[in-house]
Design brief:
The protein has 4 helices and 3 strands, in the order αβααββα. By secondary structure, the protein is an alpha+beta fold. Strands 1-3-2 form a 3-stranded antiparallel β-sheet.
């Protein structure tokens, strides 16, 4: 089933609006350039966070393959020494039904890099 778009009074069809849930990057490298600085900044605070908290706070787009790329991002951040695992929490993502997710905390190296 497709949604129909109501034409305006002058007969033109408005551009469809992209909502936050519809935003998705076209390729992995472009998406990584957008989200990387936000996660580095979150790591520099030293507080514990989930991926969704940072994504929601900054209204970041989804990657081309959300099932694989979010985990890959966090693995890259961990391997680069910016974050470490901090435990588990119930997600605040509205569509995830409070599932358990990994929590992350920035490292001392992340705080030094931000200084």
């Amino acid at each position: 089933m497709t949604a129909t778009v109501q034409p305006t009074l002058d007969g033109s069809v408005p551009e469809p609006r992209k909502t936050k849930t519809q935003q998705q990057a076209d390729d992995y490298e472009t998406w990584l350039e957008i989200v990387w600085p936000k996660f580095i900044a979150a790591a520099a605070t030293g507080r514990t966070f989930t991926c969704y908290e940072i994504t929601d706070l900054h209204q970041l787009p989804d990657p081309p393959n959300p099932q694989a790329h979010w985990g890959r991002l966090m693995t890259l951040l961990r391997d680069e020494g910016y974050v470490r695992t901090a435990g588990w929490a119930a997600t605040s993502r509205p569509t995830a039904n409070h599932s358990g997710v990994r929590t992350w905390r920035g490292t001392a190296a992340a705080r030094r890099a931000a200084a």
